[in-house]
# Entry
Amino acid sequence: MRKPWRGTLMDNIFDKKYYFCANKRLRYNVRLRSANEQESVVACRFIFKDVLLTKIMKRLTLFTIKIILFVLLFSACNRENKQQNIILNAVRDVDGNHYDAVRIGDQVWMKTNLRTKHFRDRSPISVGEASSDKPFVYEPTTTEVPGYDNKNYGLYYNWSAVNDERGLCPKGWHVPSNGEWTELEDYLGSRVEYCYNGRPYAMAYSIASTNGWNIDSTFVYWEGGSPGYSPAENDATGFSAIPAGLWDHVYEGAGKYAFFWSSTPYDSHMAWYCRLSDWSDGIRRYMDKKDYGFSVRCLRDK
# Structure
């Protein structure tokens, strides 16, 4: 009988002592021995790479495959749910512009910014060239906002147009109040799929569009969840908030900010609005001067 190969003792593997053994007929054999045992191991040979590493790699491979399948399934479900929540040709304004809509929680929102130049009663909205307390709509040129297209960016309205009794949104729709913007924010914060890494305040990216946002490689963005961090990951809801910027005597902020009016006044000079910015992971609500030109998203009446 040939002298057996002595196994190699591996310490601290699962807090036990193992000899790893093999012979020509048996591919591998693992025998548990006490730490003080002096006996040789019968027909054993150290093949740690072939035995332990192979088993670990097999388990890791199966685990990795399961993770990949889960991620793919989760992504597919998200895409399916997103598509199911989109309502094509949901509404038409008095100018004949058609808008898709998206359902988010109990609310139904226009999927793109309003671009009508008339009130609901078909009376025209004056085109603004300066700040005013009267209702105005603002439409930039491609020189003022490079790449501007009103179908994608919409038009800009001052708060007097938002608050006009003739109605800015189509029949059955309205400009959301500050409370209704808060309702949207609360809903997103309650759903883990809309919060970056599960952080309940980091949901700006879930309503931001996948295009149009500036990416400044010299600027240190937050950990994630901001629209400019990784735009390809944006818009899980289908809301598609595009960074149209604002009008404040000049057009500015395109690619960096999205401003949306609410119908809620703050005082005689200011009103509440909602804002997304390329660097912030949260949906912010502030108040500002009523003569600014902001985007408008209409919300369907309940």
Observations:
- Residues 8-80 form one domain.
- The chain has five helices and 16 strands.
- The chain has two domains: 8-80, 87-300.
